[in-house]
Amino acid sequence: MGNLNRATYLYFFDSKYLINKDDYKYNNKFNDEISEALFRTEESIDNIGILKGAIVLEQLCKKPTYIKGGGNHITSSYSIDENLYYTLLLKLTDSLTGNWHTFSRSRFLNLCTNTVPYIECVVITNITLNLAKKIDNQLSDLEYYIGGSTMDYQNPLHVILFNEYLMHSVRIVNNEICYVDAADINNWEIYYPNYTLKFVDEFVFDNNIRDIWRNNLSTGGLDAVKVFFNKGRDYHHNKVGLALMRAVFEGKIDKEFELEINYPDAESAIVIPRKKLENYALDLTHPDGRTKAKYFKEALSIEQTDWRYMEEQIRLGIHEAEVSGIKIDEHGIKYYADIGVSGRNGVNKVIRTAWIIRKNEPIQLTTLYPLDFKEQFEVNYDIRPLLAVSKEDEKEGADKWSEVYRLANQLGEVYLSECVPTPVFIEGFSGYGSEGLLGWAYINIYDLQHEFIKWLEFNRLGHVYEDYYRIVVDRKGCYEKSVAFAEGVCKVLRANEIDCEVIKHLD
């Protein structure tokens, strides 16, 4: 907003103060406090801008949980993803205290830890730090003033919360005080008699603000992006819900439907039946599936015994894929998604997967088949982990299992590096646990006769426990990091025909 050569500063107020006061409905109180403080500094107001509004971090954390509709109507329910909310809250607080600030971390966190916006914010753009400090000093005696901070235009979380989500209130340009709402300039004609007051229908602000963080992320910006990717991404079941709503709005669905998409995690939302892979799409003897099986074998070196590998390839690609061709019939909600698959020979191809959602059931794969050459499209396979070595390079005996173990640990480390634990806030205490819940994970391998078990025993990795083999994963007592590492390991083991499962344990 305005000239960004100087900086932008934020001023926070406790909105709970107004709830128990007679002037609760006087919602411009904090804006007026800023106006008066700015006037008292006796500094120039040329080329500054003012924004105002509540910090609505919870808006970034809303996920659809239930959709009902058909014809020309639709209703939906949302819930707040608390893991995402509290993680973003801690990153936001860290970023606000990284430069000039005057507020207490504990007070700020206490006002935000119930996912209700109790903090109002007034933003002043294009001012010097010296002026920012003077304004802060003028406000410091107010019991409902929390403190000031510095805005980081290289952090998308700041840009969204303190620019895009706030109301643009005042802008001073060429000796004119432009405003949308007269309530925002209470007494300004007295404060600044040499300026002209000008009502405008709306403001036209700089369009390059988003480009700042897109071109160069700050440390806080990198942290925010990592949280969005790790905890805030649209997983496949979220995309299905959005595709349904879009289809209703476009008049493509007239049948009545209900869909619950409140799954505990992304993986449990998706069911890939073993028989659809092993006894159909990869079965060279199946009367309907053999042409598909022939393609997968010849083009990708994926055979019937590689059904677990194919399952993991589908699970890797489904969350990146777009939901297409969505429709509803008497059986349920149907659609397809095109997914990039890496073969056991290093060749990459796009395949089409078809899915169904029956009432009160998870999403289930119904079929898969190769796309024609002209329908193939580019997929960024570089970001895909390597689940198994190519069959041409596959080794035998101990060397084979050593390589499998190396790949499993490699993917475990990738999942670990991407993991952002949800901080733990303890009610009644000002502190928090940035590493989240305490706990660990087990990797249970169920075939004690498997050659891989012998290799593990020989190398003293894990131990036999009851009727299965167990590997303990403990990443410094951090529950989420331990689980993330274990899930990465298991994804590789399953792709190499090793039946295993992650068991989670909270301390």
Structure description:
The chain is built from 16 helices and 21 strands. α2 (29-40) crosses α5, α3 (82-96) runs antiparallel to α9 (219-231) and α14 runs antiparallel to α16. It is α+β, with helices and mostly antiparallel strands. Strands 6-1-5-2-7-8-9 form a seven-stranded mixed β-sheet. The mean pLDDT is 89. It has three domains: 7-61 and 81-231, no CATH class; 236-383, no CATH class; 397-506, no CATH class. It is 35% helix and 25% strand.
Write down the Rg.
28 Å
Helix count equals 16
Class based on secondary structure composition and strand pairing: alpha+beta
Instruction: Please give the largest β-sheet.
Output: 7 strands, mixed
The separation of the N and C termini measures 48 Å
Poorly predicted residue ranges:
none
Mean pLDDT across all amino acids: 89
For the biggest β-sheet, the strand order reads 6-1-5-2-7-8-9
Helix proportion range: 25-40%
Task: Provide the domain count.
Answer: 3
Work out the strand percent.
25-35%
Shape: elongated
Give a count of the beta strands, DSSP E runs of length 2 or more: 21
Break the fold down into its secondary structure elements and pairings.
Elements: E1 7-14, H1 16-19, H2 29-40, E2 49-54, E3 62-70, E4 73-80, H3 82-96, H4 105-112, E5 119-127, H5 129-139, E6 145-150, H6 156-164, E7 167-173, E8 176-179, H7 188-191, E9 196-199, H8 209-215, H9 219-231, H10 236-249, E10 257-260, E11 270-271, H11 274-281, H12 290-300, H13 307-318, E12 324-329, E13 332-342, E14 348-357, E15 363-370, H14 397-418, E16 424-425, E17 432-433, E18 439-445, H15 451-458, E19 463-465, E20 468-473, H16 479-495, E21 500-506
Parallel strand pairs: 8-9, 11-15
Antiparallel strand pairs: 1-5, 1-6, 2-5, 2-7, 3-4, 3-10, 7-8, 12-13, 13-14, 14-15, 16-17, 18-20, 18-21, 19-20
